[in-house]
Structure formats: structure tokens, C-alpha cells
User: Which sequence fits this backbone?
């Protein structure tokens, strides 16, 4: 992975110079070689020319916004990891981002260290030349099968009856396997923002998923609790054609 | 005689008078007409009376219809104005959100840069940096809180049958995490007789946030030893959820503003928070077709109530339509 010096190469696309001029040196010091694109077309050109390891795309950009860039990359069979910088704190919005195959997303104004953590996670998960789980329409994890387009899931032959929020949560978990996902993060996935108090909403949905899957928290096959922190999807996830 | 009675009398007499007048006129004008000889004068008078009544009724009905239409038009105009005001407010919140997000992202990235580059900053610099960081975080929180409000008004909400006693107990349990809660007595009251509370159709997470916000406020504006009650009850008008405290109360001149975004009373200025809590509660109640109310006495305490419609009538209010930030929206396109 990476350029000739072994550092991962990342394209950072945002039209706000105040953001790129501050984020680029930050990512550079963290060990990435950063190339800046001021708009969507420039981002596509850079990806074409540099074949980078990953891409950070702002959603609102002139000349092809982040989503269009993402669509065009995926349509061209380019499966490099993409982190979307979204403006809208809405879970529906994020679902769309995931349907279009973003590996992860962050709402502005984000904590730059969080971006770093996300970027490292998507690069670690990347399967060079292969479609990322987040861009796959159908996934399997053990006896669990999920059709991400129609948002339906089956355990063996039985369809799971889940609330829309539990389905959204399962979708995020299954596309981010083996990653420690904090309750706050999952809350943001569900609601597009964090609650003023507590994260019980997440625990309630996890309990709903475990009930539906018959997953024993003490010996989890799918969802493990990371004490005091959050949850981790522990099953191996495969892409079904 | 009242005005109404006089009107009724006129309506009865007028057709009769018209009928008689017509009969007399016919008799005087054409005494030899063959047609007239076939019809009795009283029948003619009756027919004329019927016609007169019909004309009068039609006139009254038209006038009433016009009045109803005018009232409906006024009502629709008011609703349109209210909807427009809501849309304007949401649009403003989104623009504000949009305009603040990029500079804030840049500021946070800049601070992270300094933090990363300068492992051992000079004396005084690190304190200044920490302060700038804390203020950037504070604005971030404010922006995200405003965003939450706009989101709650526009987002689709997920409804299911909610068991209120269970919800109230969960709220009280979660309250233990609020700083200072262990020094207050937090009590849940739900009726069991003559029948338990009905389950209501609603979004459990949102109702939880609303109640949790109220409990957090009650703890915040009370002192050790005070009591906080979380209550639910039912009457013919629906369900009443209440959070009451024996705390400081709200000064009379501030009570009208508590539901507005960013409203912060004098007592709250020294306490953390962005002043979004009660506005959030109001929006959540509205999304459940409910209403909020507050009663407070300075020095005695406060009770905030959420009134929800009876379960069979309860529906959730639709999202405010058509205000999603979208890449095609002209005023957002600048990115």
C-alpha cells in the first residue's frame, strides 16, 4: 500500500481552502501523502492519475459533488476506500451515502482525530481491487444473509422482522466488521446526531437485533459487547454475488 | 323579542304574505282567466309560499356558505402563514448550520495541527490553546443542537406501541447518570387503578429524550434534598406526562420564553447547556400531536407537562415537508 515511500496516498477533495489547508498538513504529519482537489472533477482526475489508496470527499462541491464523484468511481469499477464528509446530520442521508458505496462518512464539523481513525479503519479494511463491503448489495455472515438494497435480512430461511432503525444498525455493523464501534458513533448512525443524554437507544436496538438473531451476548456469534465502550461485529462477512 | 325570534317570525310570515299578495294580484288582474278558475286561491297562495320559502332558504344558505368559505379561507391563510414561518425558521437554521460548519471544521483542523506540531508549547500558549479548543467545541455543540431541532422537525419518525410505565421507569433509572441526581429524590408515579395506562403509539426514543431532558432540567435547577417526580396520568382528553420538581422555579418574566431555541434564563447562565432542551421537548411533543405547558413558582418549583392525545386518536404529526438540504438547492450549492 502507498506511494514509493510507503506512505498511503490520499486524495482530499473539498472546495473550502480553509479546510484543505488545515487538514492536509494534519494528515501529512499523521503519515499520509495528501493530494488536494478543489472540486469533484479535479478529484476524479487525481484518482485517475495517482491511483491513490483512499479518498476523502466533501459532499457539497462545485463541478461534480461528492456523491457524483463516488458514483462515477464505483461505476468505473474503482473500489478504493472513500470517506464522505457530509453536511447533513440525517440518518437517511447516510443510508444513501452507504447505498452509493461510501466506506464511511463523517458529519461536519468533525474532530480531525476522528477522521484519522476512520481513514485508518477503511484503509485497513480495504481489499485491493475488490468491491468494499459497503458497496456490496448482498452480504453473508454465518447464517445471516442481508439484502442491503431492499433492506431485508434472513437468518437461515427465516426473514428477520426488524424495525427500520434496527435494520439501519445491522447494515452499519455488517459493513464494518471487526471494528470497535462506540455507542456514540452508533447513535449518530441511527439518528444523524448524538442525544443530549445517554445512549440507551443504541442498547435497545442492539438488544432487538440480538433477540432477532438469537445471539447470546455471553458467547456472541455476531454482535459482541466491548465493555464500557461499544460493540463489535465479530462474524466473518462475505460478499455474495 | 330577541333578534333571533324576530328573524324566525319574518321567515314564516314573509312567504305567507307573498302568497296572499300573489293570489290577490291574480284575482284583481285576470278575473276571467280559465286557468285561474281551475286553481283554488288557497293552493296558489300555498305554492307561492313554498316558492318564497325556497328563495329565502336559498339566500340564507348562500350567505352561510359564503361565511363558511370565508372562515375556511382565513383558516387556510393562517395555516399557510404558520407553515411558511416554520419553513423560514428551518431554512434559516439550515443556512446558519451550513455557514458555520465549514469554518468550524477548519478551526478544529487548525487546532489539531498546532497540537500535533508543537509537542511542548511555551508557557501560556497551551492554556490559550486549550481555551480556544474548548470554545470551538462549545460552538460545535451549539451548531449540532440547532441541527438536531431542525432534523427532528423534518425527519421521518418511527412509531410503535409504547408502554408508558416502562418508559418512565427507564427515564428515572437513566437519570442516575445526571450529575447531582443521587442527591435528589427521583420518584415515578403511574396509576394502576382503576386500570393501567393505555399503551400509546409513538417514537419511544424521542419520548425518552423529551422526558430525560425534563428530568435533567429538574435536577439542574434544584438543590440537594429536592424532589423530582416523573408522572403519567389519563383523563378524557388524553394522556398527561409530567416532570415536577421542588427546585428554584422560574421567574415570572422568563416563563414565556422558555420554549424558544437558545432561551437561557438568568439562573442558567452559570450552568452548562445550550438552551435547546425545552425547544426539543416542544418539537417532540408536536411530532406526537401533543402540547406542552409549564407552571412554575419562584422558590417553590416547576412542573412541565406534555399532553398527548388519547391513544385511539394519537397519530404522529407529519414531518415538515420539503426542506432537506440537497445538493440541488440553489442557496446551498456554493458548498
Assistant:
Amino acid at each position: 500500500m502507498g506511494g514509493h515511500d510507503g506512505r498511503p496516498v490520499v486524495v482530499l477533495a473539498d472546495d473550502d481552502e480553509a479546510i484543505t489547508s488545515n487538514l492536509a498538513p494534519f494528515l501529512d504529519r499523521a503519515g499520509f501523502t495528501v493530494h488536494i482537489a478543489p472540486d469533484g472533477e479535479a478529484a476524479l482526475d487525481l484518482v485517475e492519475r495517482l491511483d491513490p489508496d483512499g479518498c476523502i470527499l466533501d459532499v457539497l462541491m462545485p463541478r461534480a459533488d461528492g456523491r457524483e464523484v463516488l458514483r462515477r468511481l464505483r461505476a468505473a469499477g474503482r473500489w478504493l476506500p472513500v470517506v464522505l464528509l457530509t453536511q447533513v446530520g440525517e440518518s437517511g442521508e447516510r443510508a444513501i451515502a452507504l447505498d452509493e458505496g461510501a466506506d464511511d462518512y463523517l458529519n461536519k464539523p468533525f474532530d480531525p482525530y476522528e477522521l484519522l481513525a476512520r481513514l485508518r479503519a477503511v484503509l485497513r479494511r480495504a481489499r485491493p481491487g475488490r468491491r468494499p463491503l459497503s458497496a456490496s448489495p448482498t452480504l453473508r455472515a454465518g447464517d445471516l444473509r442481508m439484502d442491503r438494497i431492499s433492506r431485508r435480512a434472513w437468518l437461515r430461511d427465516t426473514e428477520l422482522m426488524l424495525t427500520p432503525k434496527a435494520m439501519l444498525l445491522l447494515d452499519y455493523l455488517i459493513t464494518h466488521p471487526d471494528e470497535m464501534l462506540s455507542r456514540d458513533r452508533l447513535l449518530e448512525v441511527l439518528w444523524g446526531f448524538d442525544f443530549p443524554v445517554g445512549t440507551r437507544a443504541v442498547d435497545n436496538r442492539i438488544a432487538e437485533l440480538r433477540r432477532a438473531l438469537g445471539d447470546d451476548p455471553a458467547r456472541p456469534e455476531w454482535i459482541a459487547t466491548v465493555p464500557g465502550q461499544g460493540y463489535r461485529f465479530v462474524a466473518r462477512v462475505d460478499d455474495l454475488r | 323579542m330577541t333578534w333571533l325570534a324576530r328573524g324566525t317570525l319574518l321567515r314564516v310570515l314573509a312567504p305567507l304574505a307573498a302568497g296572499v299578495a300573489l293570489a290577490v294580484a291574480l284575482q284583481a288582474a285576470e278575473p276571467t282567466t280559465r286557468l285561474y278558475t281551475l286553481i283554488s286561491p288557497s293552493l296558489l297562495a300555498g305554492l307561492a309560499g313554498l316558492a318564497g320559502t325556497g328563495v329565502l332558504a336559498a339566500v340564507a344558505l348562500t350567505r352561510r356558505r359564503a361565511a363558511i368559505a370565508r372562515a375556511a379561507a382565513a383558516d387556510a391563510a393562517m395555516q399557510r402563514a404558520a407553515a411558511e414561518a416554520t419553513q423560514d425558521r428551518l431554512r434559516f437554521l439550515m443556512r446558519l448550520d451550513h455557514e458555520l460548519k465549514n469554518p468550524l471544521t477548519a478551526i478544529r483542523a487548525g487546532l489539531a495541527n498546532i497540537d500535533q506540531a508543537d509537542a511542548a508549547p511555551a508557557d501560556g500558549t497551551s492554556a490559550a490553546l486549550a481555551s480556544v479548543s474548548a470554545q470551538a467545541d462549545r460552538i460545535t455543540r451549539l451548531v449540532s443542537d440547532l441541527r438536531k431541532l431542525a432534523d427532528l422537525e423534518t425527519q421521518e419518525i418511527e412509531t410503535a406501541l409504547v408502554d408508558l410505565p416502562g418508559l418512565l421507569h427507564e427515564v428515572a433509572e437513566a437519570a442516575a447518570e445526571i450529575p447531582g441526581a443521587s442527591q435528589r429524590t427521583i420518584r415515578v408515579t403511574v396509576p394502576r387503578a382503576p386500570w393501567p395506562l393505555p399503551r400509546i403509539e409513538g417514537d419511544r426514543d424521542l419520548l425518552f429524550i423529551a422526558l430525560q431532558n425534563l428530568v435533567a432540567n429538574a435536577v439542574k435547577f434544584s438543590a440537594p434534598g429536592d424532589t423530582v417526580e416523573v408522572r403519567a396520568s389519563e383523563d378524557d382528553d388524553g394522556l398527561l406526562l409530567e416532570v415536577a420538581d421542588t427546585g428554584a422555579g422560574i421567574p415570572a418574566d422568563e416563563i414565556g420564553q422558555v420554549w424558544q431555541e437558545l432561551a437561557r434564563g438568568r439562573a442558567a447562565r452559570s450552568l452548562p447547556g445550550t438552551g435547546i432542551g425545552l425547544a426539543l421537548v416542544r418539537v417532540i411533543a408536536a411530532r406526537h400531536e401533543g402540547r406542552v405547558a409549564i407552571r412554575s413558582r419562584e422558590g417553590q418549583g416547576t412542573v412541565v407537562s406534555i399532553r398527548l392525545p388519547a391513544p385511539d386518536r394519537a397519530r404522529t404529526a407529519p414531518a415538515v415537508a420539503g426542506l432537506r438540504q440537497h445538493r440541488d438547492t440553489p442557496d446551498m450549492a456554493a458548498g
About this structure: The first strand of chain A starts at residue 9 and ends at 13. The two ends of chain A are 26 Å apart (CA to CA). Chain A has eight helices and 13 strands.
